[in-house]
Specification:
Blueprint lengths: L13 E3 L1 H4 L6 H15 L3 E5 L5 H15 L3 H4 L11 E4 L12 E5 L24 H26 L8 H5 L4 E9 L4 H4 L3 E6 L5 E6 L5 E5 L4 E4 L7 E5 L1 H6 L9 E4 L7 E10 L4 E2 L17 E2 H10 L7
Parallel strand pairs: 1-2
Antiparallel strand pairs: 2-10, 3-4, 4-5, 5-12, 6-11, 7-10, 7-12, 8-9, 8-11, 13-14
Bound molecules: N-oxalylglycine and nickel (II) ion (NI).
Nickel (II) ion binds next to loops.
Length: 322
């Protein structure tokens, strides 16, 4: 008799949110979406969203613009190279190193202007003539995905039995820190693929990330019970959404910030991705959300101001400095 091995429990759900976006929050369709979001945020902390509001044409144009930007000569891109002081712009991570994974390039920008706390940070853009349409496309993309972020936080609020608008100010005010980070990963041969990683294992430190990836693949999520990495399959039109450390802390660990990485699959092509990172509002107190604690239970974390929390996290990374 052969015993079939139990299949893994691990699954990254694909959630069509149109039932919420097109209906009243009390409608059965909305409630179904909210329940799916709640379940996905608890486990595995990652999901994919379809039926959202970001137009396909804009997504295609954004990826096309990124292809054009990263294809520019190094000396043009380095005109807007990030510095230790102004930590946004074009970046070649670990340019000096020999591993292929370190040839990953980035382009990072944030709000115009940055919140007052970030005195030295100012977006860097090339002249439009250097890469026609790039600046306008990326800015439009940023605005659209910020709108989707607001809807996603409304879904999070409903999923936590809070007022629908509970996170509105946190995610969508003038002062909210929303970062956009695009990456280009180099093509990889079979010999190279064993020694390289696009991005090493990490969790995102902000509240919620919305990532658009192309069809090449390589993003993987760690399923802790099995200590195994699973790929995030490319789903056309979908955003990959994941809970970050700040939201895990805020929800008293009800919602999970899950480790992920980018490996370098063997491919003759570059891989592109663009993420919107919702880092929130500097003066927000991140303190156990009232619906995330049972009677007699103690909060797992001390209250902390988002600004303090971000400064501590940023000291350990390189996303944006003050
Ligand atoms: C990140 C990240 C994944 C990707 O930038 O934090 O996880 O596919 N990126 O580029
Ligand atoms: Ni990440």
């Amino acid at each position: 008799m052969t015993v079939t091995k139990a299949e893994t429990e691990f699954k990254i759900p694909v959630i069509d949110v149109s039932g919420y976006l097109q209906n009243d929050k009390e409608s059965p369709d909305s409630k179904e979406v909210v329940a799916a979001i709640r379940s996905a945020c608890k486990d595995p902390g990652f999901f994919q969203v379809t039926g959202h509001s970001v137009p396909a044409g804009l997504r295609d144009q954004t990826l096309k613009s990124l292809h054009e930007f990263f294809a520019l000569p190094e000396e043009v891109k380095s005109q807007i190279h990030r510095t230790d002081e102004n930590t946004v712009g074009y970046e070649v991570v670990g340019q000096q190193k020999v591993e292929v994974g370190d040839r990953k390039e980035g382009f990072v920008f944030g709000p115009e202007p940055f919140p007052a706390q970030f005195t030295k940070v100012k977006n860097q853009w090339l002249e439009d003539s250097a890469c026609p349409g790039f600046n306008a496309t990326l800015q439009q993309y940023y605005d659209e995905v910020r709108k989707l972020s607001k809807s996603m936080f409304r879904l999070l609020a409903l999923s936590l039995d809070l007022e629908e608008t509970y996170f509105d100010e946190f995610v969508a005010s003038q002062e909210s820190l929303t970062m956009c980070k695009a990456h280009r990963y180099p093509p990889t041969t079979k010999e190279m693929s064993t020694q390289t990683k696009g991005i090493g294992a990490h969790s995102d430190f902000g509240a919620l990330t919305l990532l658009l990836q192309d069809e090449i693949g390589g993003l993987e999520v760690l399923y802790e019970p099995e200590n195994k990495w699973y790929p995030v399959q490319y789903v056309p039109d979908a955003y990959v959404v994941n809970i970050g450390d700040m939201m895990e802390r805020w929800t008293n660990n009800r919602y999970k910030s899950t480790k992920h990485r980018v490996i370098s699959p063997v491919s003759g092509k570059y891989r592109f991705s663009i993420g919107i990172f919702n880092e929130g509002l500097m003066h927000q107190l991140i303190e156990c959300i009232p619906t995330c604690i049972d009677k007699g239970e103690k909060p797992l974390h001390k209250p902390i101001l988002a600004e303090t929390y971000l400064r501590e996290s940023l000291a350990a990374t390189y996303a944006v400095g003050a």
